[in-house]
Amino acid sequence: MTAPEPDGTPPPDPEPFPPFEVARSERIYASDWCGLRRDMIVLADGSLQEHHVIELDDAVVVVPVIADGSIVMIGQHRHTHGKTHWELPAGRLLEGEAPEDGAARELLEETGYRARRLVPLPGFYPTNGISAHYAHAFCGLECEPAGEPDLDPAERLVVRVFTEREVEALVDAGRVRDGFAALALLYYWRRRPG
Predict the structure, then answer these.
(1) 51 sits in which H/E element
(2) Could you give the number of structural domains in the chain?
(3) Residue 3 pLDDT
(4) Domain boundary among 26, 55, 84
(5) What is the percentage of the chain residues whose pLDDT exceeds 90?
(6) CB atoms < 10 A from the CB of 87, how many?
(7) Is 174 helix (H, G, I), strand (E, B) or coil?
(8) DSSP structure class, residue 95
(9) Which of 21, 34, 44, 50 is most buried per CB count within 10 Å?
């Protein structure tokens, strides 16, 4: 295991491997929401291996922080697993939309709050084994109510403001089960943009 440098500088990324050669690629499914592609990649011994890739537009996630340090979260129902749990406002970018604009839009649409300032946090690949889908993370500082949420017909959610201590308790108890929310909160707490 490589430790950080004494000055706190993180170790470098690993040396990149050359990409796999793709013998052929086939679109299996495509919709406005997602796509599924089957790539046949060439292995070192010359044999082929099937690799499925889910195609999704990039997304944003926002940690909305009120001036007193409280955090706005949403309790959202997810059809995929049938559960409702605490998350942060997040969603896909519209075609041609800048990540910061998408973050401001999703924050307002899902919570009715507007941030005075959006500060970028590190982004991440939430499912990089099966998709190049990328999440741009932001911290929304000095959030204030600006209206009612403007939800899509299939969105079911409730907006709630928690103290930072309450959010920490939810995370510690394993009750922030959404990966976007958990990782964005970690980056927020590690960086403390101000």
Answers:
(1) strand 48-55
(2) 2
(3) 58
(4) 55
(5) 86
(6) 22
(7) coil
(8) T
(9) 34
